[in-house]
Amino acid sequence: MKNVSIITGSTLGGAEYVGDHLADLLEEMEFATDIHNQPDLNEIEIDSLWIIVISTHGAGDYPDNIKPFIQQLTEQAQNLSKVSFAIVAIGDSSYDTFCAAGKSLQNTLIELGAIEKYPLLEIDVTQDSIPEEPAELWLKQHMC
Fold first, then answer.
1. How remote is the C-alpha of 46 from its chain's centroid?
2. pTM of the model
């Protein structure tokens, strides 16, 4: 059974809801999942698939709950070549920083040697008021 670590970066809880929904779907597909709503690099399996669900806050900033994880990644600068990842970025297209946190984290992970397993999904909350729906379609497209 393949393990999937779901890592969330959320300000108002939307990314956590999406992460929970994806975990439920993955478990139905017989994946083992663990959810990290207060992610700590030391508690996340390096050889699992990381699905990172992250919203953009303010002027393209990371949500507060994921900032320590980002800091761990950049300070430790370890080789993440065993990590496969996919990012679900949630944002509002009326801002010029649309999904900036997800795109920034994507770049950071690639720079550290992680392998992007599935293409970044950008969810626009002005178009999809229920972000779980496009995330579910994306997951089924890539994981089934």
1. 15
2. 0.94
